[in-house]
Specification:
63% of the residues lie in helices and 1% in strands. By secondary structure, the chain is an all-alpha fold. α2 runs parallel beside α4.
Length: 625
Amino acid sequence: MATATNVMARPASASGLWSWITTVDHKRIGILYGVTAFLFFLLAGIEAGVIRMQLAVPDNTLVSPDVFNQMFTMHATAMIFMAIMPMSSAFFNFIIPLAIGARDVAFPRLNAFSYWTFLFGALLIHFSFVVQQVPDAGWFSYANLSEKPFSSGQGIDFWALGLQVLGVASLAAAFNFVVTIINMRAPGMSLMRMPLFVWMTLVTSILLVLAFPVITVGLIELTMDRAFGTSFFNTAGGGDPILWQHLFWIFGHPEVYILILPPMGIVSEIIPTFSKKPLFGYPVMVFSGIVIGIMGWAVWSHHMFTVGLGPVANSVFTITTMLIAVPTGVKIFNWIGTMWGGSIEFKTPMLFAIGFVALFIVGGLSGVSHAVSPSDAQQQDTYYIVAHIHYVLFGGSIFGLFAGIYYWFPKITGRLMHEGLGKLNFWLMFVGMNITFFPMHFLGLNGMPRRIYTYSSDFGWDWLNLVASAGYFVLFAGIVAFLVNFFITVKNGKLAGHDPWDAPGLEWTIASPPPVYNFAKVPQVVGLDHYWLVKRRAAAEGHPITEAEAYVDPETIHMPSPSYWPIVTAFGVLVLAAGFLIEFPWPYIKFPVPIIGGIISFIGVLGWSFEPAAPEAHHGSEDHH
């Protein structure tokens, strides 16, 4: 491994707003994904605050029933599709090429297109607030609630069309990462030498490619029911509302693993690093992640135990749901096995990783309890389910993502986040999470329905709801501590160096933040935990590695050119979708705006196709082969 001259002497990449709009650099797109997703996370958190304040005391009238319905619909939709998924995508974009020794993703312009399409889809759904047509049928939009005349406004149209646009973004990103991981690994990085995070990204991307077409079919049918009067889900016309549930949950349960597998991969990088020992049972961890991805398709009807599928279907899905706990449990025991006997450093990333494991265990245990159809018949649509999903997706996904932020922040920015504020952030979030969501188990078992607008004090739910609402403020304080830490670090945080954690991954061999070309010379991987092996070998030979690999002139490496065609194409997709929300008085030209959107997208793709891939040579240079 070569040593650096002065890593701070790297030339700065192009600056200014236009450089960000036209960027195809995977690192910048990762930053765009992360910042945008975090803003939607904050917005979804505010919506959750409205829900908790309304339920803090009985017979409350803080907001109307209609606003309450809008809040829980947009809270869940934003958290799932605009916060957790794109926050994972931020790590995919920034880290995956670095972790596999590549200079960029396989399709840099497609990567940029996926970000802009995600942004436009999220803005389209939230534009419903501006025109006061907010979705209000839940993030699942069950028929017949989503059919006319039960939902006569345009809220469901905003929701369905916005999700279609978000789906285009997810598919574009997923195809990109499947091809990148399969084709662009550095020499020597066999599949069984890939970091666990790369494996979980690959499994997640394959799930996305296979799952999103299912919800796409459902959303198209829902839009046709509402716009053209078809009856896919309308019983009055011979349709079946249960068909929507099947389509939604055949997508929705792989979606749960799309949300949790990336944080599992992140935690699988952090725990070995701060335990100072390799991941216990690496091959079994890989296999268990693949099995989770496969079995995720066989459990969707555990969301439908109470719709009348019959004892055979209920029994089958009870068995498959309990079986999927096995590979999940394998991961938990392997994380514990990695820490066992390790020289553990309780830095902030490690605290969040351990918090992830602890809280995910609670969510997993409650999941097993309502995997059994007879008990689920009692728990269905109660706050017990709300407690479960939040232990999995907040205690799990969000804690895993925060672990990743603290772990890779020095690589992304070159600065270490403040440890004191980081630990304050963790403990406030950990305590607030449990105060907020643990009482919901008891509220559910005491019969409190989910999505209830208000309640009478006669039910005895008062004090537990007050405790849960108080816990929200502790959680909120934790997020404030993170924001303070973020801004202090960005302004004058401690310089991190290239390898502040003594970590094993390829991304830690290069400067922080990485140069535009990532690697001066594409590395030759010598084994699993490559950088640990290289550092130990160098130390044994008497010249330990203290600096990143050498800087080279970026002009000598062919990188893809900036391009504005991805944002043009994404804008066309936005106009195409939004056009269906505009009603025209002309009988023969009913949908001119979607046609215009299609033309814009076509022009964008045409310009994109004829644009040179790089200034002098194609992006995929001989260095990758």
